[in-house]
Amino acid sequence: MFFDIGPLEMVTLAVMAIVIFGPDKLPKLIQDAVGFIRKVRSFADSAKADIRSELGPEFKDFEFEDLNPKTFVRKNLIGENPDPLGFKALREDLDIRTVLDDKPAAAATPAEPAAARPAVVPLTAGERAPFDPDAT
């Protein structure tokens, strides 16, 4: 509802505020809180306007919401493609219904034919195996 606070929590907070501050001081407290929020909001808006004016005309379409990491990734890396990571093709290739059918599975083909693979050369007596210190 409001900052992940349910209606029961809101009622509890209202009752606690009335008990703690009293019904005579509560309207003044709410008025002060609203005034403080308005001042903070106007300060933030003026700071945004100052930043936009200092950046110049090159950044006239700059939005501060674009600095949010989720928005940045969605806008700059993923783009407008509805399936940017190719999950739709992957989902079609790995259709579970074909596995659940009684049909035999298709034969898997190796990615690289055996003729293209390098032959393994056995080591001679006393020869040390190749060693790569960066790989260990």
TrEMBL record:
Disordered: annotated segments: 105-136
Compartments, as annotated in UniProt: Cell membrane; Membrane
This protein's GO CC annotations: TAT protein transport complex
Membrane topology type: Single-pass membrane protein
UniProt-listed InterPro entries: TatA/B/E, TatB
A Pfam cross-reference name: TatA_B_E
Family: Belongs to the TatB family.
Domain of life of the organism encoding this protein: Bacteria
Keyword Translocase in record: no
Known role: Part of the twin-arginine translocation (Tat) system that transports large folded proteins containing a characteristic twin-arginine motif in their signal peptide across membranes. Together with TatC, TatB is part of a receptor directly interacting with Tat signal peptides. TatB may form an oligomeric binding site that transiently accommodates folded Tat precursor proteins before their translocation.
UniProt keyword list: Cell membrane, Membrane, Protein transport, Translocation, Transmembrane, Transmembrane helix, Transport
Name the record gives this protein: Sec-independent protein translocase protein TatB
Coiled coil: none
Stretches with biased composition (Low complexity): 105-125
Quaternary structure and partners: The Tat system comprises two distinct complexes: a TatABC complex, containing multiple copies of TatA, TatB and TatC subunits, and a separate TatA complex, containing only TatA subunits. Substrates initially bind to the TatABC complex, which probably triggers association of the separate TatA complex to form the active translocon.
Chief location: membrane
Originating gene: tatB
Gene Ontology annotations of biological process type: protein transport by the Tat complex
GO molecular function: protein transmembrane transporter activity
